[in-house]
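S.,

Sequence below, as promised.
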Amino acid sequence: MSSTKHFSKDFILVVIGQIISLFGNSVLRFVLPLHLLNITGSAALYGFVSAFSFIPMLVMSPIGGVVADRINKRNIMVGLDFFTGGIIAIFFLVYQQFNLVVLILIVLVLLYGISGAYQPSVQASLPFLVSEKKLVPANAIINMVSSLANLIGPVLGGILYSMAGLRTILVISTICFIFSAVMELFIHIPFRPMPQKNSIVHILTGDLKQSLTFIIKTRPIIGKIVVIIALFNLFLSAILIIGIPVIVKQVLPLKGFNTDEMLGYIQGIMALGGLSGGLFASTASKKLKVQSVWKLLLIGSFLLLPMGIILFLPLQGILQYGIFSVCCFAMMLIFTLTTVQLMAYIQTITPEYLIGKVIAWILSISGCFQPIGQALYGVLFESMKHFEGLLFLGAAIIAAGLSIYYKKLNKQLVSTTNEKIKP
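The prediction came back faster than expected:
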């Protein structure tokens, strides 16, 4: 681990590689369904392809965690970027010769799967590249890259698609992924091979069981954190993902405004909030304590209250929109701070040989609850027209309860911080 004041060359190369990979992946995941929508004109098909493609990310995340702990993490990043470049190159050559729907679905499934497998390798590499004191700012940088990719990727993809078309995007993407893979060859991540006496399937199931046992029994505090994150995704993250578009486009009286543009602005504000949270976490890492996370979660929960209350008040639509925007920005800032803190804490109390698998389980389990919440809120917003504010108030109460439950874990958080578990 680097003991210098600044981050090591290897960490910087990992970040650059992640920038290229996440931005490229984000652009393609936006452009390909958009191209399908333009060609077919079917919104239902567009929705099905987008939703179905999300499944491989959930499946590949724990598998990627196992691989990240068994294989040199540098080689995983290199291999996935070369593989992605190859996929896009092949798609470029054949997409006009075969069924477009099937081809785009296959490519999106592969892109989401690669994204799910890639991220555990990046997260698991951090304890090998930075000192324990730098884990929080290092995680903050990784989260900022992700926020920027989510913020700028679709915008960049839309601009390139409208100006240059799909073929140009495919060529640029192929070149960028191959360049990233070549650059990552120069990264050095310490790696100690683990003995492999059994079949790949036996190793995979054994490793997944071992890491899940670690989360549930050896370090039950991690399991409790996962439950809290998952429930926040179910009740809070999902209401933002589904509720904000519904409120902006169908509920707020925004006459004279283009609601599509207004929705784009507020989504950009949310992404900017996530970016700001990452910046704050990287600069104030020494002041942030994992025991104080419950306070941040509680504040974020209470920010849902004004969003629900103003829907029952006879206010101007643009004023309601402004209040929603401010609350969304603050919530994304707060929840990025909590994510950075919790990820650094989990990396600190997890043995090196389990980090990849544990993080992968966290991403996969918590991620599973978000689409469930989206489906739930879709039904609720449809059935509770004119009473949408009650959904925000209810979500605030549930989220506040989860925050208070987290406070009860503080003693356990402190007691496990300095414990070391040997392999």
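The chain has 16 helices and no strands.

Coffee later?
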